[in-house]
Amino acid sequence: MKADIIIKRLEKLYPPGKFNSNDPFRVLIATVLSQRTRDEVTDRATKKLFSKYKTPAALACADIGDIEELIREVGFYRVKAPRIKEIALIIQDEFKGKLPGEMDILLSLPGVGRKTANCVLVYGFGKDAIAVDTHVHRISNRLGLVATRTPEETEIKLEEVLPIKHWRHINELLVRFGQNICRPVSPKCRICPIVELCPSGKA
């Protein structure tokens, strides 16, 4: 099966990591911060924020200005600061400070779409889900695994073609592959380990 071969070869480059962080709330906030922001910037901002506000209860009581200052590096920080506080308030008030691991509840939170919700399910709860970001959507289509127009369609189609054992790892795998080799512009096809399986590949 093409999908199995692709994943096995890419896993040699990027061995699977650990998925459950034991802090789903931190995963959620980090994923919200990551929107339109580089990974290294997201990591710094997340560390700064959680060094001061470690729980939903603490963040729910935080001053918006203070949150803005702590996450200032990330894109659209003035939009994200009140959104993060609102999410913390909801989790504290409606769920007694414990983030539920259910898709419909996650999607009901401000600024949380399917990609963010699936990231929380995968990296926060260790559940089988497919988080589709721009890398996963682009590369899945480039490789011919799917033929879709939106990330939502890609998620559905990948669930059909990927064995469930690969669902949790596919996001991390294709993100790293997309950053290092299968780039949006000028992909490094000459060093790609799956170039002969790619309809767009140029050996």
- Any idea what the CATH architecture of the largest domain is? Orthogonal Bundle
**How many angstroms separate the termini?**
22 Å
SSE series: HHHHHHHHHHH
Number of helices: 11
Helix proportion: 55-70%
Name the overall outline. Answer: elongated
Give the strand content: under 5%
Radius of gyration: 18 Å
Mean pLDDT: 93
CATH topology of the largest domain: Endonuclease III, domain 1
The number of distinct structural domains comes to 2
- Briefly note the structural class of the backbone: mainly alpha
How would you sum up the major sheet?
none
Number of beta strands: 0
Low-pLDDT stretches: none
CATH-level-4 superfamily name of the largest domain = Hypothetical protein, domain 2
Kindly provide the name of the CATH class of the largest domain: Mainly Alpha
